[in-house]
């Protein structure tokens, strides 16, 4: 509960808000509000004013509650972070790898751009109100994230995978993950607690690198498709179709390598990359010379990475409905770009979603030069969350994930703009996938996906799920990314590259990172019941025809101030660090090997940072946020 002082502050804040330039209350309205004896023709006007005032009071109250909670959890921030200087985190004395352990904690001393149109964007105001609304709208189209038995049922079922059939757990569309923060009624089940205690007992006496073990467990009752692995065939595929797209790391070209006191990061002040609404995603062109931003007002802007000037704005001017862009991908020639997101009915309102009705969402192929849509790929029923472009056995494909619960592979003709056919992945449980990442050295035959509360492995060729693992997250997992870990052991034998095949003692493997969302506690519906974490896992490949994939826990990344309990937040890595965004405008930089916090960037305006990417061959880092800005950071050599 809020104290009397907090309530008084809330009232003062409301009075201040009612007198700001962008939200003034009409003087005549105030006269009607305070008029006791008013005419009947003024009743409707008075009621409307009271409704508007009530909404402002509720919004201001929720904002104060959120800020109060953040102040309690971050009460030491003002002492540890000075807005006028850089603070260096001291490394542990027993660490021999000092260059990557000396790390900077940056400040938020750079002012935000004062673009009146940006600040007064109705889309931005809408998004802000939705984030702070106690009854947050669900992304699942069927229910709302309120304190209901349905929400409680969702998480409980996922954590009881050893008892109930996973095929049943995810059969109901109502069980899909929510857009942002989950109901506070749900708590971790006894099964999870018991497992954790057993793990702690097993870890006594072990080395720190093995302190987390078996967090990602196979879904015991999941009906895994019986598949055989033709290892020689996969090795042949890997050799014919190498997949180096995933291997951009700190030792390649001029990419950001170390982040420490000798190589700090600084904000690039001359880069003014922004849009008039939330920027949900960003992507680089294949040559790294262009950056594209995707916003919720249906625009995709292309920027020159060298000068940071805007090159082109893409918008479907012929679209009669409401467009929102989330993701996109250039074609190899960079003459076209395919963009996807959400499409809403301009004339129909959904009371369940408290938003315009969702329509089937197409992929739109834009001509980069003309800015026109030249093709639409129809197949998804709801918003599209991820898109990848890959080659398999010499043919071109897009792979997309959607809120509708399906992963689709689109076989494209040679130009990447015309559709040949498309196939929906069969998973047997209709689970929603947030992101996917193809496994290295498999010729793009297998990929791993963040599916609801778990991670799943798919066979791309047969378009079906083959394995599924339960993650340690109490709500859901929404980000998975294969990374090339420079400081960790590499496989001795690599599929398609080694003369000898991997063995049981020396298997083929790769590393991947996951990010998850936790259930909120029962007090105020704002604090996760478990600390937000990212995890690094080792995926061990099969070594024989009837073997299967295995997951081994390597490390976890957390901090008491790392809060990331929001929908559609992505992480990135350069092979030496992991950069993890938060819902309060920060970027946390963790050492991939040690798991320790290396630094923190705070240049966004206290709202969700959605996406972050390292440039593959320039010393640059990009982050985009709901504040409508892309921040650019670069390495400075002292």
Automatic annotation (TrEMBL):
Residues 185-196 have a biased composition (Low complexity). Residues 197-209 have a biased composition (Basic and acidic residues). SMART domains: WD40. GO terms for cellular component: transferase complex. Residues 139-160 have a biased composition (Basic residues). Residues 1-19, 70-85 have a biased composition (Polar residues). Residues 1-21, 69-99, 130-213 are annotated as: Disordered. WD repeats lie at residues 279-313. Signal peptide: none annotated. PANTHER family: WD REPEAT DOMAIN 5B, WD40 REPEAT PROTEIN. This is WD40 repeat-like protein. It comes from Anaeromyces robustus.
């Amino acid at each position: 509960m809020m104290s009397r002082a907090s309530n008084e502050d809330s009232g003062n804040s409301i009075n201040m808000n009612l007198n700001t330039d962008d939200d003034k209350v009409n003087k005549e309205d105030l006269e009607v509000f305070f008029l006791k004896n008013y005419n009947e023709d003024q009743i409707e006007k008075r009621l409307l004013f009271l409704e508007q005032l009530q909404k402002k009071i509720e919004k201001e109250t929720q904002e104060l509650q959120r800020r109060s909670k953040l102040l309690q959890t971050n009460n030491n921030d003002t002492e540890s972070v000075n807005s006028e200087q850089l603070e260096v985190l001291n490394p542990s004395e027993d660490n021999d790898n000092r260059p990557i352990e000396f790390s900077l904690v940056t400040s938020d001393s750079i002012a935000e751009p004062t673009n009146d149109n940006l600040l007064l964007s109705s889309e931005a105001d809408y998004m802000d109100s939705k984030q702070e609304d106690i009854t947050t709208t669900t992304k699942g189209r069927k229910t709302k994230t309120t304190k209901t038995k349905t929400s409680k049922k969702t998480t409980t079922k996922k954590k009881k995978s050893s008892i109930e059939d996973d095929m049943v757990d995810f059969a109901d569309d109502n069980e899909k993950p929510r857009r942002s923060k989950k109901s506070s009624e749900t708590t971790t089940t006894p099964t999870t607690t018991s497992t954790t205690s057993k793990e702690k007992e097993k870890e006594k006496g072990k080395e720190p690198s093995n302190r987390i073990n078996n967090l990602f467990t196979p879904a015991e009752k999941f009906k895994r498709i019986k598949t055989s692995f033709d290892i020689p065939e996969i090795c042949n595929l890997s050799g014919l179709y190498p997949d180096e797209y995933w291997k951009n790391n700190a030792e390649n070209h001029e990419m950001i390598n170390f982040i420490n006191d000798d190589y700090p990061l600084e904000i690039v002040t001359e880069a003014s990359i922004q849009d008039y609404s939330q920027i949900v995603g960003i992507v680089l062109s294949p040559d790294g010379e262009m950056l594209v931003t995707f916003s919720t007002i249906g625009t995709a802007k292309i920027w020159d990475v060298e000068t940071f000037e805007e090159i082109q704005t893409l918008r479907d001017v012929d679209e009669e409905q409401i467009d929102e862009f989330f993701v996109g991908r250039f074609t190899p020639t960079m003459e076209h770009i395919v963009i996807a997101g959400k499409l809403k009915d301009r004339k129909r309102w959904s009371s369940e979603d408290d938003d315009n009705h969702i329509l089937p969402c197409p992929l739109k192929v834009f001509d980069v030069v003309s800015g026109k849509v030249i093709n639409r790929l129809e197949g998804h029923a709801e918003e599209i969350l991820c898109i990848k472009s890959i080659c398999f056995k010499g043919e071109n494909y897009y792979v997309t994930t959607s809120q509708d619960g399906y992963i689709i592979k689109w076989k494209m003709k040679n130009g990447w703009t015309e559709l040949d056919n498309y196939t929906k992945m069969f998973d047997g449980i209709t689970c929603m996938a947030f992101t996917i990442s193809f496994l290295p050295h498999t010729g793009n035959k297998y990929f791993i996906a963040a599916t609801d509360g778990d991670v799943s492995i798919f066979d791309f060729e047969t378009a079906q799920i083959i394995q599924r693992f339960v993650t340690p997250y109490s709500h859901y997992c929404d980000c998975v990314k294969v990374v090339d870990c420079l400081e960790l052991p590499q496989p001795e034998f690599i599929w398609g590259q080694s003369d000898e095949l991997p063995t049981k003692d020396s298997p083929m493997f790769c590393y991947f990172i996951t990010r998850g969302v936790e259930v909120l506690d029962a007090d105020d519906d704002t604090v996760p019941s478990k600390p937000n974490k990212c995890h690094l896992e080792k995926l061990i490949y099969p070594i024989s025809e009837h073997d299967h994939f295995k997951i081994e826990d390597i490390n976890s990344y957390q901090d008491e101030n790392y809060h990331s309990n929001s929908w559609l937040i992505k992480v990135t890595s350069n092979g030496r660090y992991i950069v993890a965004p938060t819902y309060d405008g920060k970027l946390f930089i963790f050492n991939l090997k040690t798991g320790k916090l290396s630094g923190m960037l705070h240049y966004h305006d206290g709202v969700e940072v959605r996406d972050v990417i390292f440039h593959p061959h320039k010393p640059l880092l990009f982050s985009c946020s709901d504040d409508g800005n892309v921040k650019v950071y670069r390495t400075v050599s002292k």
